[in-house]
Amino acid sequence: MDRTRTRQRIRTMLLLGVPLWIAHGCASPSAPVPPPAGGQVPNLDYATFVSSVEPVLERRGCDAGGDCHGGGIRGTLALSPAGAKDAAFDFEQVSRQVSVSDPDQSPILTRPLAIGAGGTPHPDKPFASTADSDYVSVRTWVRAGVTQ
After folding, report:
1. Angstrom distance (rounded) from CA 145 to CA 40
2. What is the pLDDT of residue 138?
3. Using an 8 Å Cβ cutoff, are 139 and 117 in contact?
4. Cα-flanking dihedrals φ and ψ of residue 93, to 5°?
5. Which residues touch 65 (CB under 8 Å, ≥6 apart)?
6. Residue pair 108/143 in contact by the 8 Å Cβ criterion
7. What residues pair up with 113 in beta bridges, in sequence order?
8. Fewer CB within 10 Å, N- or C-terminus of the chain?
């Protein structure tokens, strides 16, 4: 009888101890994980994005409408739909398209740029050249965020 109680107590301690051990191991980090290999992260300005970049995206039809920039298999840049713009979401998504090591080769600059002007493959080419005023607005925002 004494053995049975001892076994029950051991089982109870083990059952209660395991969840505490698991919970202890799942603590979130106190600071963000640094970029791999000591890389840098851009310091992009949200207010400038809202005033200068988001209007370019809207004018050029870059949103989740149709099958463009809705995420999934269509590409890596997901944007909010035209009828429900979410500048904070768009800022987060576009910021991921900025290369700190080579800002002029950032996907947000090369994908919508004509191939002849130094662009990379993309089904739509809203910028014919790097002299386009909308292109210049986006590039200025990118460069300001990586040179600080």
Report:
1. 11
2. 95
3. no
4. -70, -45
5. 81, 82
6. no
7. 127
8. N
Q: Can you say whether the dihedral through the CA atoms of 36, 45, 140, 62 is positive or negative?
A: positive
Query: Has this prediction a pTM greater than 0.85?
Result: no
From CA 144, how far away is CA 148, in angstroms rounded?
7
| DSSP secondary structure string for all residues of the chain | -HHHHHHHHHHHHHHHHHHHHHHHHTPPPSSPPPPGGG-------HHHIIIIIHHHHHHTT-SSSTTSSSSGGG-S-----GGG--HHHHHHHHHTT--SS-GGG-HHHHTTB-GGGT----S---BSSTT-HHHHHHHHHHHHHH--
pLDDT digits (tens, 9 = 90+) for 108-134: 999 889 999 998 877 777 888 999 999
Q: Which residue has the higher pLDDT, 99 or 18?
A: 99
